[in-house]
Amino acid sequence: MATDKKQHIIEKAIELFSEKGFEGTSIRDLANKAEVNIAMMNYYFGSKEGLFQQIVETRMATTRDKIEEIAINKTLSEIEKVDLIIELYVEGFLSQPGFHKMIQQEMLVTKREDMHEKLINTFIQNTNNFNSIIEKGIRKKAFKKVDAPLVFATIVGTANQVLKSKKICNVFIGHNKNYEPYKDTSFKERLITHIKQLIHAHLLNK
Amino acid sequence: MATDKKQHIIEKAIELFSEKGFEGTSIRDLANKAEVNIAMMNYYFGSKEGLFQQIVETRMATTRDKIEEIAINKTLSEIEKVDLIIELYVEGFLSQPGFHKMIQQEMLVTKREDMHEKLINTFIQNTNNFNSIIEKGIRKKAFKKVDAPLVFATIVGTANQVLKSKKICNVFIGHNKNYEPYKDTSFKERLITHIKQLIHAHLLNK
Amino acid sequence: MATDKKQHIIEKAIELFSEKGFEGTSIRDLANKAEVNIAMMNYYFGSKEGLFQQIVETRMATTRDKIEEIAINKTLSEIEKVDLIIELYVEGFLSQPGFHKMIQQEMLVTKREDMHEKLINTFIQNTNNFNSIIEKGIRKKAFKKVDAPLVFATIVGTANQVLKSKKICNVFIGHNKNYEPYKDTSFKERLITHIKQLIHAHLLNK
Amino acid sequence: MATDKKQHIIEKAIELFSEKGFEGTSIRDLANKAEVNIAMMNYYFGSKEGLFQQIVETRMATTRDKIEEIAINKTLSEIEKVDLIIELYVEGFLSQPGFHKMIQQEMLVTKREDMHEKLINTFIQNTNNFNSIIEKGIRKKAFKKVDAPLVFATIVGTANQVLKSKKICNVFIGHNKNYEPYKDTSFKERLITHIKQLIHAHLLNK
DNA sequence: AATGAATGAGGATTCATTCAT
DNA sequence: TATGAATGAATCCTCATTCAT
């Protein structure tokens, strides 16, 4: 079925875009990697940029919706919400490192104005949702008076930093360069623990 | 003089590379921006990649040397060293946002193998220097037993996150989109304060 | 059909390469002459060098195979074989002067190492096949003890020399400069006769 | 002195032109090889083509004059003259293989019309001088009625053929590929002997 | 629905040459 | 006399895309 082939192309495309960047990846590369006809790429996605947008839009929405869900949840405490968001980011990033490297690149680059704008706006929405949680915690005297948006930047920034290079992670965990750190559960736990401890110490009274 | 013109080209190139990425920037673009002949670019730097390398190599060394200097300093306490490094990164990033965006992109991308390798190695050196400080603090019982490389990832990651987009920063500080947040001293202080508080709470006993 | 167009391009390319040499011929020239798009050239042949190799490889093989065939033939006498090879070279050179001028140039030039190597090796194979004929003739006392590889050099060298310039040939045969000597049957016969007489006198006992 | 430096440049240029052809050699290459400034090449010789012409014109004249001298000599017999010309060509070619490879290329190529024309005309003059010797020999009944211009083509062609590639010669004389066959005196003698025997058998009555 | 053929625009780079000093 | 700096033109090639089938 066509959807299968599309999905296959998308997965291969994420690999390449994340390794080489948008401009650094040619349609030829993408077609070869996905083992489909070059003309087919345009037939399915309209253009290289179309393919890229399709990838981004479907996947970004998921994270955004989950954060919103957490933010408006009435049964969780604020610190539980913060912890969930930490887990959400770390698990999301480590399970789809290619996609998130791709997003990081696109956030840095202003070339494709529209795409850049969308990503920034989504990030701002996520920040706002996070802020509202923190502010509620502060009002409840559960949290210290912290700089909420920068706390969010710390969480996302730390996870992103780990994503930058497998090699760096392997140095951290003492493996050789061919090891796949992102698939290592104990590394994931270590990262989550670090961020939680950090944020808790910063956030919680006492 | 030739050095002046070279320096001029380099500065304009950083702007473009940081906005559009390496592949996204053409030699034509670079030449136009610097208002020099296209052939001139190759005359001075050999190739587009040559220009890029020249930019990176000269500037990366500075940061690396400063961190090393701090690490081996005998008169500073460990927490003073950590604070200095935080200041060093924030000030470095905010004073040369274009250059550091460029570096971030290049760390994400593995296309230019050599360049990528160099950046990663430099980052690992910096991490090691930072680790040695933390470990000394731990041995002296000044610091809690923390995950030193991830602490470093947090510092750099937070600063990088802020660098991702002016627009995000302007939302944080309540300015419109044309404001230059990286030149705003109070924003810089706010960022330094955030990271220091965060790290202190995480690191210090009591 | 695609093969037709490819063949058309190849024929036009031989004309240009033989007139101007490999470096002296630009892809633009080739595309104009063949009346196709510049990008088309690379689409079909990968590169200028790819086109060149394709031309050389297909045509060189023909001559080499024919000589080998003659060498191993069991019904012909040695002098008949030598005569056939003389005819083969003269007829081959005069019927495809452009191609053989091209080959001559490439044998002189060491710039494209691979191509050069291939041509030399083919020539050595041909020489060896020729040598084996001569040596057999010598053993049978049909031939004098001659310097076989240099005899071959004389045959090929004489034919090549004639190929160097139409103008020279026209002086030989008393025509003006626009005449096409290579298509003149009596000139071909004259050349064959000359080489045969020369070689016979040198080779045959009595 | 300037003449020395010019001479030095010319010698290095012959090496490169003979290896890579005229178009295949850049002014940069030439300047590097001769270890002089790039601008200097144009300063001395006006242009790349100017350098090339200067090389050709000075050296071609020498051979032409020598042949003419032999042709008009009154004390030598015709067969002595033919032998002298054979020696002249073989020695000339083997002592300056680079230069003569260069000339061969230029004779094959019609790109630089003027240069090509000059070479052809010189060759025709040489042929005519050779013809006059042969015809005189025929009138004197010393020589058979041979095809004089093709006899000349055979002499020059055989020598040229040997010049085509060192590697081929080394196969003939059983040396490895790094040997310098053109400097080997016994190879030179072998070549002269071959051509003389060949031409004598063809030319002389009985 | 799918694809081989085709192409205009633009990519980086190298060219021979000129100019100011 | 000699040369580093500079450049317009041309190099080969790859790009994303379109089109006819």
Largest interface, and how many residues on either side?
Answer: A-B, 49 and 49 residues
Overall CATH architecture of chain A: Orthogonal Bundle
Identify the CATH class of chain A.
Mainly Alpha
* Structural class label of chain A: mainly alpha
Number of strands of chain A: 0
N/C terminus separation of chain A: 58 Å
| Poorly predicted runs of 5 or more residues of chain A | none
What is the overall pLDDT average of chain A? 93
In angstroms, what is the radius of gyration of chain A?
A: 19 Å
CATH fold naming of chain A? Tetracycline Repressor, domain 2
Helix fraction of chain A, binned, reads over 70%
Globular, elongated, flat, extended or rod-shaped: what is the shape of chain A? globular
Q: What's the multimeric state?
A: homotetramer
Instruction: Name the CATH superfamily assignment of chain A.
Output: Tetracycline Repressor, domain 2
Helix-strand sequence of chain A: HHHHHHHHHH
Biggest sheet features of chain A: none
